[in-house]
Design a protein that fits this description.
The complex is a heterodimer of chains A (105) and B (184). Chain A has 105 residues and is mainly alpha-helical. Chain A contains 4 helices and no strands. Chain B: InterPro entries: RNA_pol_sigma-70-like, RNA_pol_sigma-70_dom, RNA_pol_sigma70_ECF_CS, RNA_pol_sigma70_r2, RNA_pol_sigma70_r4_t2, RNA_pol_sigma_r2, RNA_pol_sigma_r3/r4-like, WH-like_DNA-bd_sf.
Chain lengths: 105, 184
């Protein structure tokens, strides 16, 4: 009578049986298809939200002070830190949205 | 080879590298999922694909590429548990239930493809075990992870991993003995 323990261990220690090459190719094809669908969906969502964010920024952000500061030719030391922060904030926000879009590819 | 494609996928995020990564790890991933589902091949392959999509979505969070496979199996186990809860499937079978299931398929066991038949037999044996036992037994005995590694992989205390492993093995041995007695 064979040892059930060793028989069982033999079964368990054996590597998984691989599918046929055709089945493997089919699995890869399906996985890549799903991957593409997900990455497309992701890109669309980020693009739409990115555009909405940009639009909101353009419509509601006080861009005029920023333009005035940069066009006045004032020395950078003459501008207070809060004003400067406010002025560069749109640039930072736009950069952030661009980075998000880039990462969503 | 896998690390090369992982690095490339990390840099470029292109579908070609993704396909190569899938090709390198699909056999083990599918085998693991099939054992978890106790031989429900179609659903197991779905879990494997969901796992790969999660890999793509969360790849940025993986700091150490050497730990890729452990991470992959952890994600697969989570997907399996989620699907099991949602669909109320793959519950533990009693010895008698499994025995009658195997009897129904005894004709197929006489076919030529012994490798595949043996693998299917192991997958079906997994039905005797609960989810954690299936994962621990497969990771330990087939994929070669130590109890310590499984403990961090499945985020389970070491003692729990050991007891799942022992209980699972005892159940399988008891069933094998029962089958031998039946055959004698």
């Amino acid at each position: 009578m064979s040892q059930p323990d060793s028989d069982l261990m033999q079964y368990l220690h054996r590597d998984f049986v691989a599918d046929t090459p055709k089945q493997q190719q089919e699995f890869i094809r399906q996985s890549v298809q799903k991957y593409r669908q997900h990455s497309q969906k992701r890109a669309i969502v980020f693009t739409v939200f990115g555009l909405i964010a940009l639009l909101a920024l353009v419509m509601f952000f006080p861009i005029q002070p920023m333009v005035e500061i940069f066009s006045s030719g004032a020395n950078i030391e003459d501008i207070s830190l809060p004003t400067l922060t406010l002025a560069v904030l749109p640039v930072l926000l736009i950069s952030y949205v661009v980075v998000l879009l880039e990462n969503s590819r | 080879m896998l690390s090369h494609w992982l690095q490339r996928f990390q840099k470029r995020g292109d579908s070609h590298s993704f396909a190569q990564v899938v090709s390198q790890c699909q056999s083990q991933l599918k085998g693991y999922c099939r054992r978890l589902t106790a031989g429900d091949i179609e659903q197991a392959d779905d879990i494997a694909q969901e796992t790969l999509i999660t890999v793509y979505q969360q790849f940025g969070r993986l700091n150490n590429l050497d730990a890729f496979k452990s991470w992959l199996y952890r994600i697969a186990f989570r997907h399996f548990l989620k699907m099991q809860q949602r669909e109320k499937r793959w519950q533990c079978l009693q010895e008698q239930e499994l025995e009658s299931l195997l009897l129904q398929q005894s004709d197929e066991r006489n076919s030529d493809n012994h490798e595949f038949i043996d693998e299917r037999y192991v997958m079906q044996l997994m039905a005797l075990l609960n989810s954690e036992e299936r994962a621990v037994i497969t990771l330990n005995h087939t994929l070669g992870y130590s109890h310590q590694q499984i403990s961090s992989l499945l985020e389970m205390p070491l003692g729990t991993v050991k007891s799942h492993g022992k209980r699972g093995k005892d159940k399988l041995i008891a069933f094998s003995l029962r089958q031998q007695r039946g055959a004698a």
